[in-house]
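Most newcomers find our protein records easier to grasp once they have seen one. Sequence and backbone structure share a record, each on its own labelled line. To make this concrete, we reproduce a full record directly below:
***
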Amino acid sequence: QVQLVESGGGLVQAGGSLRLSCAASGSSFSSNAMGWYRQVPGKQRDLVALITSAGNTHYADSVKGRFTISRDNAKNTVYLQMNSLKPEDTAVYYCNTVPFRNHYWGQGTPVTVSS
């Protein structure tokens, strides 16, 4: 069983930065591709960044060049560095495997970007 706990969200002005963390408990973390997803109320949860077990990264067009995903397998932690934040980045951010597993969803961490 894997438990994922997100942290690091908050309120930031447009143009600012935040760093999200996702701490994973349980085994097999390093062998999984991991992703950051975000959800705005009333909309579906979208994948915005992923990192493979080999460390390859992929980003949604909306965040490319502004967000950086990384992982520390020794700490069982995935990070999302978010720079040049925009009001449209406002959402609750979640981490999960890619593809996601429904029973892995955590509480998420809210990010609010003010204009």
User: Anything to note?
Assistant: The first strand starts at residue 3 and ends at 7. The chain has a mean pLDDT of 95. Residues 5 and 23 are 5 Å apart (CA to CA).
